[in-house]
Amino acid sequence: MPVLKALTDEKVIKHSYNASFERICLSRYLGLPSGTYLSPEGWRCDMVWAATLGLPQSLEGVGAVLGLEKQKLTKGKDLIRYFCKPCAPTQSNGGRTRNLPRHAPDKWEMFKRYNLRTAAPGYRMAELQP
After folding, report:
1. Residue 89 pLDDT > 60, yes or no?
2. Residues 26, 7 contacting (CB under 8 angstroms)
3. Which pLDDT band holds residue 121 (cuts at 50, 70, 90)?
4. Residue 130 pLDDT level (bands cut at 50, 70, 90)
5. Contact present, 113 and 73 (Cβ < 8 Å)
6. Bridge partners for 15 per DSSP
7. 15: which of 9, 65, 100, 126 fits an S-S bond (Cβ 3.0–4.6 Å)?
8. Claim: this prediction has a pTM higher than 0.90
9. Is 16 helix (H, G, I), strand (E, B) or coil?
């Protein structure tokens, strides 16, 4: 099944750490009208499951408690700010208001690795669910 179809199919179970955030972001990406979001049916929030088990709610904390080798990169927050938030237009950045992969390919590669690592605790949480 294509990924985009699976995202809108309530019968396909999708795991995410902070599923509400993912649903809202993906709703925008899919072009749903403002105020309309993907249905929560079919989504499992690993952050809620972690809290239910008495684990930390931060992804980093869960990774540490579960002893996962792939911990959240400490540079992750800086990379999120760089690629996911508007930047101030300056002369040195050519007046852009967004940083794109082509503006810093080295940071983009680190950002991709960071995203792979943040998925690891979620995978482990999914394994723990009944």
Report:
1. yes
2. yes
3. low
4. low
5. yes
6. 44
7. 126
8. no
9. strand
Element (H, E) at 15: strand 14-16
Length reported for the chain = 130
Euclidean distance between the first and final Cα of the chain, in Å? 24
Place of tokens 């925008």: 28
| CA distances, 68 to each of 61, 114, 121 (Å) | 10, 14, 7
Banded model confidence at residue 83, pLDDT cuts 50, 70, 90 = very high
CA–chain centroid gap for 72, Å, is 12
Tokens of 19: 């599923």
Number of H helices, E strands in the chain: 6, 2
CB-based contact 79:114 (threshold 8 Å): yes
Strand partners, 43: 14
| Residue with the two structure tokens 């699976």 | 6
